[in-house]
Specification:
262 residues, alpha/beta, six-stranded parallel β-sheet, 6 strands
């Protein structure tokens, strides 16, 4: 998101009129003709469409993060219009895919990054004003098509989890264990009857630096904590990196297959 990396096409935009100079993506650029056939090929699995369709992160990428954060305060109408255009695009893209798949998809996945290890990057009030209504529109596809809604939001997102549930979230990923406020016992106790949790196996300390036995113990603990009554999809709390010891990755999968849910 740094202003010094990559191309930030809206860095100098100061009004809604400036947005007309940017070529926004179009759904008709995509070919969905083979989608239903591909879904049918893997019917024994739960099939998820998407998984990363950011709203705020896309704003960071278009403006550069410093300019974007300034505009959240100085030019909220400009930010709102960009978020609207991004959301309209995602909505039509997912809708087209769901129509073509015609019942072969069980989960639709969205994702955004708007939190650090310690807190949200913008206030909860600003998030609710500028982001929540547009995420609600995307999540509404879940009820319209009878599919589960998955959302990736890493970092300290505890403050807005009730909002995500309110607008239709079913599955929260990655349940980052070392982020502030993301204690697994507390999350399960407070939201376990409303959400499924996906992830949870720490990638900051346990998987890169732990021993295989420590990984196995951690996996058993996650299942014991998050798996009570169901509603837990065990996985790493973010991408597996090639710097992680292979024996730790194998230990995670092996132990997950051995342990019976409580």
């Amino acid at each position: 998101y740094s202003d010094n990396l990559g191309f930030r096409p809206l860095k100098n935009a100061t009004s809604v009129r400036d947005l007309e100079d940017y070529q926004w993506p179009k759904v008709e650029w995509f070919d969905f003709s083979s989608l239903k056939e591909q879904c049918q090929r893997y019917r024994e699995y739960a099939i998820m469409l998407g998984g990363w369709s950011p709203v705020i992160s896309r704003v960071f990428e278009l403006f550069g993060i410093q300019t974007a954060l300034i505009n959240f305060h100085r030019r909220p109408n400009l930010i709102r219009e960009v978020i609207k255009r991004v959301t309209d695009y995602y909505y039509e893209l997912y809708k087209a895919a769901l129509d073509i798949a015609h019942g072969e998809i069980q989960i639709i996945g969205f994702g955004d990054d708007f939190a650090t290890q310690r807190d949200l990057m913008i206030s909860p009030e600003m998030w609710r004003e500028l982001c929540k209504p547009y995420l609600a529109r995307l999540f509404s596809l879940g009820k319209k098509y009878g599919v589960y809604v998955f959302f990736h939001a890493c970092g300290a997102v505890r403050k807005i989890i009730p909002d995500l549930i309110e607008i239709g979230l079913d599955i929260l990923f990655p349940v980052q264990p070392l982020a502030k406020g993301m204690d697994h016992r507390e999350l399960k106790a407070e939201f376990g009857d409303k959400l499924a949790f996906w992830g949870g196996v720490d990638v900051q300390k346990i998987l890169p630096f732990g021993t295989p036995e420590e990984v196995r113990q951690y996996v058993r603990e996650r299942i014991k904590i998050l798996g009570v009554g169901g509603g837990y999809i065990l996985a790493s709390s973010h991408n597996l990196l090639k710097s992680f010891p292979l024996e730790n990755i194998l230990a995670m999968y092996d132990e997950a297959m051995k342990v019976k849910p409580p």
